[in-house]
Amino acid sequence: MDLSAVVLAGGKGTRMEGVDKGLIEFKGRKMIEWSLTLARPFAERLLISCNRNITDYMSLADAIVCDRIAGSLGPLAGVHAAMEVIDTSALLVLPCDTPLLKADLVERLVAVATENPASIVYLVDEAGAHPLHAIIPVSLKQDLEDYLIDGGRGVQKWYLRHKSVQIKVEGENRQSLSNINTLIELEERDGG
Q1: Would you tell me how many other CB atoms lie within 10 Å of the CB of residue 107?
Q2: How far apart, in whole angstroms, are the C-alpha atoms of residue 92 and residue 101?
Q3: Better-predicted residue by pLDDT, 81 or 68
Q4: CB 1 within 8 A of CB 113
Q5: Do the Cβ atoms of 88 and 3 come closer than 8 Å?
Q6: What is the CATH number of the domain that holds 137?
Q7: Distance CA 75, CA 70 (A)
Q8: Are 26 and 34 within 8 A, CB to CB?
Q9: Based on the structure, what is the number of domains in the chain?
Q10: What are phi and psi of 66, to 5 degrees?
């Protein structure tokens, strides 16, 4: 499967007291570096979607993309921005705030997406969906743009418009999907 990857770091960091989550240190590395390291082996092109601190991110990936549709439209705007600049058939999407994510989950995403190239493939566990751990066919770019321009924001709501495959995550792998949203969570998980 020809695949590009984007790590989403475009949020405002509201729950992190305005701090850019991707640039926060976690176990000696910038939090985003954990996701970038997992994505790199699968990606022909590795992108970061961010809307601030662009120069801080530039050396970490092949390219930086910023939202192309104005209005702080959420993570799908970052996905759309990445789709606009790649020439692969699919896009691996990871958030910057799940530094405990295990490589085997990314491998499973790629394997299932390879078998289902026309479907959106994403992770779920018993607590619900993890739609920003996904592989999305780039053929859906125009539909995504239309959805955003028409006021759509919900990731899962957009996924429901298309063929999708959910990968069930169980056991200890569920913990690796935990995202870090606050400075308190960061301190707890970083061993501080």
Answers
A1: 13
A2: 14
A3: 81
A4: yes
A5: yes
A6: 3.90.550.10
A7: 13
A8: yes
A9: 1
A10: -115, 155
Q: How far apart are CA 49 and CA 29, in angstroms?
A: 19
* Average pLDDT, rounded, for the chain: 89
Average pLDDT over residues 7-30: 77
Separation of alpha carbons 192 and 128, rounded Å: 29
Q: Which of 132, 140, 6 is nearest to 64 (CA)?
A: 6
Dihedral sign, CA of 153, 73, 189, 167?
positive
| The residue to which tokens 């200890």 are assigned | 172
- What tokens does 139 get? 């053929």
Whole-number Å distance between alpha carbons of 82 and 93: 10
Residue scoring higher pLDDT (100 or 47): 47
Instruction: State whether the Cα torsion 155-161-165-170 is positive or negative.
Output: positive
Q: Phi and psi (nearest 5°) for 47?
A: -120, 155
Cβ atoms 62, 69 nearer than 8 A: no
- HSE, side-chain direction, 13 A CA sphere, residue 94: 36
State which residues form the domain around 29: 3-189
Residues 48 and 9: beta-carbon distance below 8 Å: yes
Cβ-count burial 84-97 (b if 16+ within 10 Å, e if not): eebebebbbbbbbb
Please state whether the predicted TM-score (pTM) of the whole model is above 0.85. Answer: yes
Q: How many Å apart are CA 77 and CA 117, to the nearest integer?
A: 22
